[in-house]
Amino acid sequence: MTTAPTSALAVTGLNKAFGGVQAVRDVTFALAPGELLALIGPNGAGKSTCFNMLNGQLPPDEGSIKLYGHEIIGLKPRQVWRLGVGRTFQITATFQSMSVIENVQMALISHHRRLLSMLPFAGALYKDEAFALLDLVSMGAQAGRPCGMLAYGDLKRLELAVALANDPKVLLMDEPTAGMAPKERIELMQLTADIVGQRGISVLFTEHDMDVVFAHAGRVMVLNRGRLIAEGTPAQIRANAEVQAIYLGSGAVYKTDEDTAAGAAP
Ligand code: ADP
Ligand code: MG
Asked: Which ligand ends up closest to the CA of 52?
C-alpha cells in the first residue's frame, strides 16, 4: 500500500485557553477508521475541552479538525453531528417521559430529517429500525417502559442506541461509564466495542477506570495540563514512566488495594 487511508479524524495544532488557563495546548493526533482510541489524563487535563472542540460546541483558538479529510472547525454542533460525529451520553439526553422505543424513534426521525409535523404519526415511524437498535443493545424487552424508570446501566445502553440511530462515523464518548459499577463498565465497553467493530465506527473515549481502558482501547493517548505527553498501545502506556509518575498517588494506572476494596462506589 502506498497511500495511508484517510483518517476518520485528523486533529492538528489544537489550542484553547480560558482566560489565563491554557486548557488544550498544541494537540495533534489522528483517529484511524474503526479504531477504539482512549484519551486519558488526570482531572483538569483538558479531555472534555478537546471533546467540546471536536463536536463543534467550543471554537478552538487555533488548529484544524478534519473529518475524513473535511475541515469541520467553524461548523455548528448540529452540523458536525449531521456529518456523522456522534457524542454519547451527553447530547443524547433521553426524554424521561417517553418510552424507550419512542426515544430511539425520535432519534431516527431526526436522523432521517422527518418533519416535526409528522409527530402525531411518530408512533409507527421507524419502529422496526428502532427495535433492531434496541435489540443490538439488549434493550428490546424494555421497549415499552418509560425512560424515567430505567436503571442507570440500562439508560446508558439506551443512550448508545440513540447515538447509533444517527449512523455515526465517529463516536465521542466522554467518560461513558462514569457512575457505573466495575462489572457494568466492562460490559458496556465490551458491548460498545462489539457494535462499533461490526459497523466500522471510530471511537474516541475518555475513561478514568484503567481496567476499562487497558481492556478495550486499541491505542491510548495521555493528556496532562493540556498537552499530549504519551501515545501507544495499552501495554506501552502502562509501562511508561512519565505516565506512572502523573498517576502516582491517584491509583489510576495501577489500582491500590484500597481502590479495589472500595469497589463499585460511584
Ligand atoms: P478534563 O475533562 O480532562 O477533566 P477539562 O477539559 O474539563 O479537563 O478542563 C481543562 C481545564 O480547563 C481545567 O483547568 C478547567 O478548569 C478549565 N476549563 C474547562 N472548561 C472551562 C470553561 N468553560 N471556562 C473556564 N475554564 C474552563
Ligand atoms: Mg472531563
From this structure: 1
